[in-house]
């Protein structure tokens, strides 16, 4: 193999306001599960840097659950599909697939024998279905609800029982197997978000948007009592999880708190106040998990909070992107900087000694919209976003300054020369700034729409790509036109100037890359044509021998400038489009970082294409 995937730095869970998210528990206690985009992410609970990904779904995933045996995972998506796949093989081989309902899968539950499942969610004819793991045949009927079912739980002891929670304000109790309707319980006054059987099967609880939690008898579904206390939740409750000994419970609420309850005394033992995000709404708690001694709760921002039961405080917070990563840059010490669709910028100290590979948020006033491009020059990080702003920050303090420069139009790319002259292309013009971000030149009335920019190694030439299939070479000093590069057959979508020679790689919307000589304007390489969709990003290795490209086709290619027909292909590098690629500077061999629409950051070790 010409490459290996060294690391997948997983995104946070994907969240939606007003909806609970599901964290899946590992019966072996080592990992936990959640979904983002079309992927299911499996993260080590002790060291969440370690992650693997399942990519079998063709639609957005919504929930994933381990079987009690630990050998299989069932995952659902917004189209109503449930895929059952193994956890043993690295390829996660598909065991079975079913479409139990016609709409989004909200939750899945296994029985204790890992033989039967219940999937619930949105539907037309039905809102849930019970079926066999092997044959997919029906093992009962999930009836009694008139609206979407949000949660399901199966008693893990015989005689089996099941319980569901719905937007119709009811909790429905089923006997089994086969599972059949027993009764509806109308204790809640608003949507019921969660139900959960205790591990010993003696009780189950329900929690809802009315901020209430009710305890029920596990075998017959009779209401025991409501959890009432002066310091109970003041907002809707999205998630509940039992302790392994069935004596305690945690609840996560829109009031930005997690409460630890003692079942026997009906008392709150401790309250965890979550106020890690700058936006109060982002601190709403929408999902949780109690796995062995680990207590986790997830914020609406996607942050995963590790809760210390003994101190009543947050012991650790796992941060990162939850939306598509749209920009990437790498410093000389291989610290990675990423920007995303929602305007967030993070750093990853991958290359630094003793550095963490967990995301650290870039502090200060960031972007209010998608980050379009990032570039690192020495200790300065420059970024542009769809809020039409240029921002500068320090790579040492990991924070933005207060300086914000308005571009007056949508910025598409940013490039910086060795003397820190900065070029920003917008939808309307080319703007030139000095090292202090003071505008020193601007070129309007271009006659074309600029898309990308690069500055050659000498600082003499500025190359600007356009939507008219041409790249233009300007004198950087006065923005006078020097020549046009016109062999590309699609809109110019990516540029990369060679680090030492007067060469520029030009990628276009039809997946072709041409390498041009800036002095003659002639292409010197025309054989890099294997992408099947728009080139999204190009970058040269420090030695100038290799070029890496990423594309809308999900692939990454590494090309050899001196042997143009030699290449390394990383097919399906991301689930969706590859948005940016960069070479690492200090890795053995060729290290490549890539980011994409799946919100994941990946590092690859590549054998040189020779």
TrEMBL record:
WD repeats lie at residues 54-95, 185-226, 230-271, 318-349, 531-560, 571-610. Pfam families: WD40. It comes from the Eukaryota. Belongs to the WD repeat AIP1 family. GO terms for biological process: actin filament depolymerization. SMART domains: WD40. The lineage of its organism: Eukaryota, Fungi, Fungi incertae sedis, Mucoromycota, Mucoromycotina. This is Uncharacterized protein. One of its GO terms (cellular component) is cortical actin cytoskeleton. Keywords: Repeat, WD repeat. CDD domains: WD40. GO terms for molecular function: actin filament binding.
